[in-house]
Amino acid sequence: MPNTAATPERILVVCNSFLGDTVLGIPFFRNLRRRFPQAVIDVLSEPGAAAVLTHCPYTNELIAWPRPPRSKRLLPAALAAIFGQASWLRSRGYARVYLFKRSFSSAVLVWLAGIPWRIGHRSEGRGRLLSRTVGMQRGQHQAESYLDLLRYDGIEVDDGHNENWVPEQDRAEFDSLLVDVPAGRPRVFLAARSTNPEKHWPIDRWAAVIDWLVETRGCEIFFCGSPSDVVVHREIVSLLDPRVAGHVHDHSASVPLRRLGSLLTRMDLCMGIDSGLPHIAASHGVPVVVLFGPTDPQQWHPWKTAYEVVQSGRVLPQGGRSMLDIGVEQVTAAAARLLDDKAGSAHAPRPKAFDVHRMCDGAVA
Fold this sequence. Notes:
40% of the residues are buried. The protein has 2 domains: 142 residues, Glycogen Phosphorylase B (Rossmann fold); 193 residues, 3-Layer(aba) Sandwich (Rossmann fold), CATH 3.40.50. The strands form 2 sheets. It has a 7-stranded parallel beta sheet with strand order 9-8-7-10-11-12-13, sandwiched between helices. Strands 3-2-1-4-5-6 form a 6-stranded parallel beta sheet. By secondary structure, the chain is an alpha/beta fold.
């Protein structure tokens, strides 16, 4: 292990391209900074995900790592990219590296970079390339698995509380986007799409949920996603009565990912499938309803905020659960409970690490 007492270290953390995974690393970064207050802590990430750490005070530089080509035909180009990136990292003099990314290529990269102390999870035959490997515990939350990288390195960690940041300038600028939104109505953010189609829930059911939120609970509905999500948002809105559709607001074209927190901090509830956006909402302390199908809610539920998991009670033969087995009633019931909790606690703020979990197992009749 490198000697950390004499001079400040340069430390690298290797993430991947997934927003949720990266956001769940915030407690890790806080504890790493607490242990190494004078160190330079850089983050190497595939394009996109690092944007969620734009305002994180525990890191120094966010470095983009383009995904190496995966086609066998392009293998020479992939190897050249890894060797080139490794050479550049070597020149920066990192003393230790922690790997969130569990790929073999990431372990090869930091080994070629000559970083003396290399810590990552045990997977894909990486043992000989890392200084220390950490096992993944069954049923363990992803945020805890990141904190284990520190624990196994002899570093004490705190309670793992969640957090995120919005600059005051962003808060002020964002007010102009909400000037036409009726005041006094609950605001609900919807995250309806993921990069994994198996996580998707039918758009007609999302439309039914929106109808309930607007007509029964008097809510204003907000979307914000990638440009490709806009098409799906429009399809959902097209299924609504025009009177209901007038309470739906899509900020996908006007709010970049790095400023999404400015919108989320104004929400009373986030609802969505298991994707990065609900994790970002949770990091800002927003209550969250998440629909789970192929992924494990024990590993991926919203971290350290009030939340409800909605999941089918039927396990598929190949494992996981079908999103099609989740009914509208289960989703609206979960939303009602969290909205009621939010309204009831409006004058009694929750502790920062407040974490309430209800599991709703439901199937379509």
